[in-house]
Amino acid sequence: MEFVLSLPESSLLPVYRQVCEALKQAILSGRLPPGAKLPSTRDLAESASVSRFTIIRSYEELAAQGYVQTISGSGTFVNREIPKEIADIVAEFASEQAFQASSLGETELSAYGKRCLEGEIEPANLELFPELNYGAPSIDQLPLNRWREVVNRNSRFHDPGLLAYESDPFGYAPLREAIAGYLVRSRSVRCAPEQIAIFTGAQAALDLVCRLLIRPSDFAAVENPGFSGARRTLLMNSAQLFPVDVDNHGLLVHRLYDCEQHLRVAYVTPSHHDPTGVVMSLPRRLELLRWADRNDSYVIEDDYDSEFRYGDKPVPSLQGLDEHDRVIYLSTFWKVLFPVVRLAFVVVPRRMLAPFARAKSLIDRDFSLLEHRSLAEFINEGHLERHIRRTRSLYAKRRVSLVQALTRHFRKRVTISSVTAGMHLLVRFAPEISREDVLRSARKAEVPLVSTNNHYLHDCDDSEFLIGFAHADEEQIQSSIERFAQELAAYIEAPVAAN
To answer: Does residue 419 sit in the same domain as residue 377?
Structure first.
């Protein structure tokens, strides 16, 4: 065990006392917490450049004062239960440290740093929704055995060239080839491997896009309702937001012309709108692409939750329709493989390749070679698409079970979205049922339900909620919704009847 011990050069105390005081400070400050093992006397003597006898004497002094104890054959440990007088010293030390911290002056921040603290920028955890398991897939359905086999094979680095420190900022080339092939097959994206840039997450990818495109006070169009994480990233990069409403056919593209300022970008989720799930119609897609070309603007297409559609034919990407190199395609494996894989990727327009590559090489040029190699093989061997097909069938059954349970127990008091996609169901309760009562009842019944309020910049709908169905089987869904109805019946005037 290595432990760095700094001794004052000008101290007049004996060296063993200096060591003893330094270790006391480490214990009082929490650097050596209760139960922590101290380095061996030999190791600490070598590290501090003192004799081993000095360290032994220091340990004996600490033991005599009640700070440590030596267990024969095991070593020396910080006492888990220290005497009261020492505990008082620890408390006094902590209070003193807290006072010193509170008396420090504030750091003068950059404009970016000040925006981090601005009240109008939403906290980073608002869109995570722990009630919905963060929108991640069901862990018990992950192909863990198959993934383990792939990782084990790829952990054998037989080619020494793989270990050379040469890093393409866009990511491991074979993985980019695999992703490009997957996108061409499944999403009708038009791209080559050199256009694929891999990131650790979608927010990091979107942040880099914003850094390259958004100038101070540029305007950006966002869906209302829409993904709050995207709004936050745009605001952090000094954009002014222009909210655009969404109907049953997607973004109301004609409203983009209402903005008196030039809109630099439009952020959209056309294949599965967040949160309503509606799909942008083909006429709207073509209209949006015409708008981008005519106005020298870019469209950021977040292909959110596009893997899970039940019964409907696959929806091709917006990027695949783009004839003018104006769409920046963003997607992730979050909905399919989290937490096994936490990767996102961008299909970079060819006109942006040079600045994108330079920027990424400056801020994020390294990647996990093992993870990238494993995922490339996982995709190329067909495991990813087989996993998607299997879970799509499973989630479809769970969605049907949720719709049936809500219909049976709530009848006309609930309106259920007809969109058959995603891992959540959009529902609206009758106006006489309060938002707080719904949330309270769902929490008691352990129903994964959240309000959509934070998706809105204005005109939020207090009766609108999302209910997750990916993490419970049909029997659990039925029982939890029944209890939910019973809990909610206590808060409304007319009891909710069940058959």
So the answer is: no
Ordered alpha helix ranges (H), 118-215 = 144-154, 173-187, 202-213
Give, to the nearest 10 degrees, the angle between helix 369-380 and helix 173-187: 40
Cα–Cα distance for residue pair 409/473, rounded to 1 Å: 18
How do residues 288-328 score in pLDDT, each as one tens digit? Answer: 999 999 999 999 999 988 888 887 777 889 999 999 999 99
In this structure, the answer to whether residues 222 and 83 fall within a common structural domain is: no
- Do the domain assignments include residue 3? no
CA–CA gap between residue 361 and residue 355 (Å, rounded) = 10
- pTM confidence score: 0.81
Within a domain: residue 228? yes
Torsion sign (Cα): 368, 369, 370, 373: positive
* Structural domain count, the chain: 3
Domain that holds residue 450: 386-489
With respect to residue 314, please indicate whether it lies within any of the assigned structural domains.
yes
How far is Cα 230 from Cα 213, in angstroms, rounded to an integer? Answer: 14
Coil, helix or strand at residue 196? strand
Of 382, 410, 439, the one marking the end of a domain is 382
Report the chain's C-alpha Rg in angstroms: 29
**Same-domain check for residues 443 and 350:** no
Among all chains, which residue has been given the structure tokens 């969605």? 399
Residue 330 has pLDDT above 60, yes or no: yes
- Residue 492 CA to residue 499 CA, distance in Å, equals 18
**Token pair for 106:** 């504030």
Asked, for residue 6, whether it belongs to a domain, the answer is: no
Which amino acid belongs to residue 445? A
Q: Highest mean pLDDT range out of 112-126, 258-272, 330-344?
A: 258-272
Q: Give the side-chain half-sphere CA count within 13 A for 4.
A: 1
Is-contact 267 243, C-beta < 8 A?
no
Provide the 8-state DSSP code for 432. Answer: T
d(CA 358, CA 362): 6
